[in-house]
Amino acid sequence: MTALAPAPQALDLRTRFYAELDPLLDAHPDVDVVLAVIGSGYMGRAIARHPGRVIDVGIREQALIGVAGGLALAGRRPIVHTFASFLVERPYEQVKLDLGHQDVGAVLVSAGASYDVSAGGRTHQSPADVALISALPGWTVHVPGHADEVAELLQREAAGTGRTYIRLSGQRNARPGPVDGRLHLVRDGGETPPSSGSAPLVVAVGPMLDTVLDAVADLPVRVAWTATPHPLDADGLRVLAGPAPVLAVVEPYLEGTSAAAVAAALVDRPSRVLHVGVPGESELRRYGTPREHAAAHGLDAAGVRRRVAAFLV
Q1: In-domain check, residue 2
Q2: Cα 273 to Cα 29, 124, 202, 293, distances in angstroms
Q3: What predicted TM-score, i.e. pTM, was given to this entire model?
Q4: CB-side exposure of 74: number of CA atoms within 13 Å?
Q5: With 60 as the cut, is the pLDDT of residue 196 above it?
Q6: Which pLDDT tens digit goes with each residue over 198-227?
Q7: Whether residue 162 sits in one domain with residue 20
Q8: Contact (Cβ atoms closer than 8 angstroms) between residue 89 and residue 132
Q9: Does 97 share its domain with 194?
Q10: Distance from C-alpha of 72 to C-alpha of 74, rounded to nearest angstrom
Q11: Residues 136 and 192 in one domain
Q12: According to the 3-state scheme, what is the secondary structure of 67-109?
């Protein structure tokens, strides 16, 4: 379990995704990009250099997934992109049937995260997207926290055959981490051996890492991180959690999304677990900024600290 290596700040995640598409299409002749208007204005070079391989279906999100399913059945590798609410929630039946039931692969790449497009209102918010995708069989979910992670994931998944969801966010960490599907220890909590399980463990998912590190700076906890919450690195969690874990999981989407996976990993040991994310019991009916939404949901550093500190008492 390696610490995250330092690196300079790169482009934001969505900009890096667009920048990677043209060389990606060069490197992978079986890849096509499928859009529903969103993002087309940022892909001029890829569209010009690869005619017929960037397909814009218009504002037809069910068709977006249907076209991707047809391409996959024909042996192509579709990369499908729009805002999360239009990529997962609106065409969920097509994701279930046209990709899952047909047992074909695709790479779904969303933007907007839970509330990045807060000015667009509730139609553009999707805190439940990872929970919905995780409920379908055969999917892998990546939640990168840095632009370099986006580039690595795209190259790897473009060469694959499976069903993958990559969730891009406006929030990002200062340094990239390894996107190997594992849980990585970032802070060992000082006096306690990292794998002893004696110190409480806080697991940060994707772009929540820097916020979590800020939140727990003065708390006696260890911090671990992953960019791949589904399937969860159960073996890594068991090693880090120890025999009687006190654990908090901080995710940038619907609170409790990883609860079943965490419970299954720790089923043989007594544990106390806190899940921190976008609350599911109420809906925030205000526009505001992403920063204001994070604060209202308790997902800024102050809010995370309050929840974790109260849990440790």
Answers
A1: no
A2: 46, 31, 10, 24
A3: 0.93
A4: 11
A5: no
A6: 799 999 999 999 999 999 999 999 999 999
A7: yes
A8: yes
A9: no
A10: 5
A11: no
A12: HHHHHHHCCCEEEEEEEHHHHHHCCHHHHHHHHHHCCCCEEEE
